[in-house]
């Protein structure tokens, strides 16, 4: 069987790329299930192998505020403290909820926050410390996919 040099080098490159992908998947698997300290290493390997970030590295958090002033103050502080890369302030939402046995309806302002998943706990603690509500709504969901340049900007803006 005759294999030209070019064919071997192409096979070698493909093998190396596939090996990097397998290694990054293995490290990511171990970091999620077994060794939390490897999570950032796993995410870097996935980024190198695929050109995008791993699912769950970033999160979107949501907070309701009683008015525009409180929303703006919290949003600016989150960005200044590097707990968020971006906060969208969404005015004029109506919330209907049960509170202390009564059905309530309030006009509120919604904050939609983009951050690293590792910052959600600190973000929630800060919000609880300054929010005027007795029980502040702070919820988050992992971002599974996103525009790679935007996700890179998010990572660059909010340090680990």
Automatic annotation (TrEMBL):
Residues that span the membrane, as ranges: 19-38
InterPro entries referenced in this protein's UniProt entry, alphabetically: Ion_tolerance_CutA (IPR004323), N-reg_PII-like_a/b (IPR011322), N-reg_PII/ATP_PRibTrfase_C (IPR015867)
GO BP of this protein: response to metal ion
Keywords recorded for this protein, A-Z: Membrane, Signal, Transmembrane, Transmembrane helix
Gene Ontology MF: a single term: copper ion binding
Highest taxon of the lineage: Eukaryota
Family as reported in the entry's similarity comment: Belongs to the CutA family.
Subunit and interaction comment: Homotrimer.
PANTHER family (alphabetical): DIVALENT CATION TOLERANCE CUTA-RELATED (PTHR23419), PROTEIN CUTA (PTHR23419:SF1)
Protein name per UniProt: CutA-like protein
Species of origin: Callorhinchus milii
């Amino acid at each position: 069987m005759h294999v030209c040099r070019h064919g071997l080098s192409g096979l070698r490159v493909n093998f190396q790329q596939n090996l990097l992908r397998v290694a990054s998947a293995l490290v990511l698997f171990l970091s999620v299930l077994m060794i939390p300290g490897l999570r950032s290493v796993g995410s870097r390997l996935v980024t190198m192998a695929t050109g995008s970030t791993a699912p769950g590295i970033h999160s979107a958090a949501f907070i309701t505020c009683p008015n525009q002033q409180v929303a703006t103050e919290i949003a600016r502080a989150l960005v200044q403290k590097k707990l968020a890369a971006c906060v969208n302030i969404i005015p004029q939402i109506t919330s209907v909820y049960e509170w202390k046995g009564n059905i309530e309806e309030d006009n509120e302002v919604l904050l939609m926050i983009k951050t690293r998943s590792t910052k959600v706990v600190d973000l929630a603690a800060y919000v609880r410390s300054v929010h005027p509500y007795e029980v502040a709504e702070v919820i988050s969901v992992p971002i599974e996919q996103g525009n790679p340049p935007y996700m890179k900007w998010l990572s660059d803006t909010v340090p680990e």
